[in-house]
Design brief:
Length: 417
């Protein structure tokens, strides 16, 4: 057996709105996505993907020739896409062996299937669950981390940067251009990839963890970066930016101001002053100048968030903004602790908008209305064209479906129910 299938279960719902536009395993923590970590754990195996039918065509565009919801071989190892895969995953759950379902509590972590069991277990129009395989032996497996909520990705981020730096980085090597006047603390814990540039006056402080500056990234003068930190390919860190520990910034972003323990997925901008902490920003986001989010309540209590229609106690004192793809804020915007903003929102004005903003909302603290889908798509095309990207028909289909499915949420929040 040499095929693994990375699959989604119902847990993707608890990672909304980040999973509205992508499979759960394309979420990031550390340097790479959950899918990339799983693939690395099973190096040498052919990887294919199980995803909700709505996302299949759009995701196929992203992975090229890889198999998405296609016919399988006569045997495969299915791995839950919410697994945070460490280096020992293949030892705990080997590719080869008898058919078995691996469970952690009531969650299917993986399933090794062949023949008719594989045909019964892999149903592409629904999540994979144990009930599809009543006759396959079950084994309980311990010590595997499953991502359950958006803030889990942020909380694991510092340790994942450190772990993946040891695998993907070249500690102590400066292959990019480092200008005179750059100050590097603990240079053995810093990697600067080819094509990257670090301008005069920059401080790279890796005494608390590694710093990975990827290919083509540009660090402008007077910026300060504390490790552990990852700066993605072709990303720009603006003049005098303060990037604190536990931050991962994906490719083709522009980031300034103050950022702490946050994940910016890719192709998103926070160019100006303002604080972003314990946050996860998805793709094609733009935060206006002096946008700030709170990540700590005044009473130092646990933060609560609305996820998939449920008010959830995060169990944490530190949870900031979670924002879905193609959402934006105007200048001087403010977000309360634990605010969740859906896909395709445009928020502006004085005051704090609601702590839960449904997808395709327009407005702010003074009230919200629907962001018309035709107007939204026009803006999305213009934004993506600035980065030489195209809004494909498959992605438009996904966005239109999210717009339609969120109508009842908007009605409830807008007071129109």
């Amino acid at each position: 057996m040499s095929e693994i299938i990375i699959f989604e279960d119902d847990g993707y719902r608890k990672l909304s709105p980040l999973t509205l536009t992508r499979p759960v395993y394309e979420l990031k923590t550390g340097i790479t996505s959950l899918a990339a970590k799983i693939s690395r754990a099973y190096s040498g195996a052919t990887v294919s993907y199980h995803v909700r039918s709505l996302l299949a065509a759009f995701y196929q565009e992203q992975v090229g020739g890889a198999k998405v919801n296609g016919a399988t071989t006569d045997a495969a190892l299915l791995v839950n896409g919410r697994v945070l895969a460490g280096g020992d995953l293949a030892q705990k759950i080997p590719v080869a062996g008898e058919d078995a379902i691996y469970m952690q509590g009531d969650v299917v972590v993986a399933a090794r299937l062949s023949g008719s069991n594989l045909g019964c277990g892999v149903v592409f129009d629904q999540p994979i669950i144990k009930d599809l395989l009543p006759d396959v032996p079950v084994q309980q497996v311990e010590g595997i981390t499953l991502i359950a909520w958006p803030w889990d990705l942020v909380h694991h981020n510092p340790d994942e940067i450190t772990r993946e730096f040891a695998i993907l980085g070249k500690p102590g090597e400066q292959e990019g251009k480092v200008y005179e006047g750059v100050r590097i603390l603990d240079a053995a814990n810093v990697y600067i990839a080819p094509g990257a540039s670090v301008k005069p006056g920059v401080v790279l402080d890796a005494e608390g963890g590694p710093i990975f500056i990827d290919e083509g990234a540009k660090i402008f003068p007077q910026a300060v970066i504390e490790g552990p930190c990852y700066i993605g390919k072709k990303t720009a860190i603006k003049i005098a930016a303060k990037i604190y520990e536990g931050t991962s910034i994906g490719e083709v972003c522009k980031v300034g101001g103050e950022v702490e323990e946050s994940i910016i997925h890719s192709y998103s901008n926070k160019q100006h002053d303002g604080f972003l902490g314990h946050a996860y920003l998805a793709m094609w986001i733009n935060l206006g100048a002096d946008t700030n989010n709170s990540d700590l309540k005044n009473d130092y209590g646990n933060v609560k968030c609305v996820i998939d229609g449920e008010l959830v106690d995060t169990g944490s004192q530190f949870v900031g903004l979670t924002m879905g793809d193609h959402s934006k804020s105007g200048i001087n915007s403010m977000f309360n602790t634990g605010t969740v903003v859906g896909v395709g929102c445009n928020l502006y004005g004085a005051g704090l908008p609601p702590k839960y903003v449904p997808s395709f909302s327009w407005g702010g603290a003074d009230g919200l209305v629907e962001y018309r889908i035709d107007k939204f798509l026009k803006v999305a095309r213009a934004v993506m064209a600035r980065r030489d990207k195209e809004l494909t028909a498959a992605e438009e289909t996904v966005l239109r479906a999210i717009h339609d499915a969120s109508a009842s949420e908007r009605a409830a929040v807008f007071g129109q129910a």
